[in-house]
Design brief:
Largest sheet: 7 strands, mixed
Radius of gyration: 21 Å
Strand content: 15-25%
Structural class: alpha/beta
Shape: globular
CATH architecture of the largest domain: Alpha-Beta Complex
Number of helices: 12
Distance between the termini: 44 Å
Number of strands: 15
Order of helices and strands: EHEEHEEEEHHEHEHEHEHEHEHHEHE
Helix content: 25-40%
CATH class of the largest domain: Alpha Beta
CATH topology of the largest domain: Quinone Oxidoreductase, Chain A, domain 1
């Protein structure tokens, strides 16, 4: 039995601005769970690009400071007032929980029980990037084994998930990257083709597709990179934009829309969670957990930090040549593992 309220270590966002300036280690109140609620202890929470955008005040949905950031994570149930979730069970945190804290209370019905075979660190990163990849591969275009797709930002968390999920579907991937050392790295996790950004990108993509139509392109960069992907799409192909890393707008020639009838779509997984049927969400998590449990879906980890180390964690997360996710570990103090 806990006291009526307690204090939890947390990262506190005071105002929007430069990420390493506007957050600081602190404490927040945690109340005892009411009926149908649970008390959670957070084990791992990643620092995602979406988290950085929230701190900057540039995300599609923003909390009201002062608040605890963190869009996803994994936790154990410390105390349960619900028959839905047992004490000791590991769960995925819901949207809006604020995962950069040690303890917190929420409705049991908002939690996703975790397959015990899924490693906790990998579980902490399932809700955003792999979910985005899975939805984009399944929700827009009907793909069959042997089909080709093309994507940029292939080394990102979403990009790596696309490679691994597509491989499980029998779908071939053409992956555009900016650094030559990533070619072998992505090939090792199942990428079929990896090429560098540069001139005549559309032509080089089509050469790798070897005559097979590209029905789907995934864009998280914008600018010339997005144009290269759009130009390689087949008639009536679809390009989905889910990010804008270059901060350059889409520049798609009228002819691609008029004569090739390509479709431009956007995707935001937060909206999908709000609008999707509960059955579809459950089926998605079953697929992702099954892959994560066997290691077929795996996200590399570039560094692990405690809540008190939030500033170096944010600086590491914004490093250009980082390969892997930065994790916050609220319930213990691991040694920092630097990026390679």
């Amino acid at each position: 039995m806990m006291r009526e309220s307690m204090r939890s270590p947390a990262v506190v966002l005071r105002e929007f601005g430069v990420p390493s300036v506007v957050v600081q280690p602190g404490e927040v109140d945690v109340r005892e769970p009411a009926a149908e609620e649970v008390l959670l202890e957070v084990e791992y929470a990643p620092v995602n690009p979406a988290d950085i955008n929230v701190l900057e005040g540039k995300y599609g949905a923003l909390p009201t400071p002062p608040c605890v950031p963190g869009v996803e994570g994994v936790a154990r149930v410390v105390l349960s007032r619900s028959d839905l979730i047992k004490e000791g069970q590991r769960v995925l945190l819901p949207a809006g929980f604020g995962s950069w804290r040690r303890w917190g209370t929420c409705l049991a019905s908002s939690l996703v029980p975790l397959d015990p075979d899924v490693p906790a660190e990998q579980a902490a990163m399932l809700r955003i990037n792999p979910a985005t990849a899975d939805c984009m591969l399944r929700e827009f275009v009907s793909l069959s084994p042997g089909d080709f797709i093309v994507q940029n930002a292939s080394n990102s968390g979403v990009g790596r998930s696309v490679i691994q999920i597509a491989r499980a579907m029998g779908v071939m991937t053409i992956n555009v990257v900016r650094r030559p050392e990533l070619i072998s790295e992505l090939s090792d996790i199942g990428a079929d083709q990896v090429i560098l950004e540069g001139e005549k990108l559309s032509s080089r993509i089509l050469e790798l597709a070897d005559g097979r139509p590209l029905k789907l392109g995934l864009n998280a960069v914008g600018g010339e990179s997005a144009l290269g992907i759009a130009g390689a799409l087949a008639d009536s192909g679809t390009m989905i934009t889910y990010g804008a890393m270059s901060r350059q707008p889409l520049r798609v020639p009228n002819g691609l829309l008029i004569f090739k009838n390509i479709t431009l779509r956007g995707f935001w997984v937060s909206r999908w969670y709000r609008e999707a049927e509960a059955r579809k969400i459950s089926e998605m998590f079953e697929r992702l957990m099954s892959m994560a449990a066997t290691g077929a879906l795996h996200t590399p980890i570039a560094g692990r930090y405690t809540l008190n180390e939030i500033v170096p964690a944010l600086e590491h997360a914004q490093t250009d040549r980082r390969s892997g996710k930065v994790l916050l570990c609220p319930n213990h103090s691991p040694k920092i593992v630097p990026t390679k």
